[in-house]
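Bumping with the actual sequence this time:
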Amino acid sequence: MLPLATLEDLQARRPISIDETERPRAEALLEDVSAVIRDALGLPGLAIETAPPLVRVMTCRIVLRVLDNPGGFVSEQMGSYSYRRSKDSTDAGILLSDTERRALMRSVGKVLAGTTRTPIGIDDRDRATHAGGVNHDLTTPSY
């Protein structure tokens, strides 16, 4: 399957041009990142022609992250040389961060939903009180 962004899309977002030595790696990364995004979205047939614009942007952004910072450095120092790599593997690789995953899911109309427990306890008596004494539990007959 074709990548979700083109080499031209990638070049338009990078201040330094992609030379002939980087081209094969950039093309491979476009394919790899596209596969990761399709898998994360659960859309194996997603094509560049039908993908929302954010998918193209994110594909390029992740590829550039790997091209421009293959070691995953998050800081560096000159005097008494020091460097630091992130503990988060998404800083150096093609894996999606939680923020990237959520943004991509929203762009294709998928919403990650969940439930939240309230810190106060609400039991059946509270439900009956707040429901005006009407039994809304369909499994228990009301007489």
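The tokens above came from a reply further down the thread. The first strand starts at residue 73 and ends at 77.
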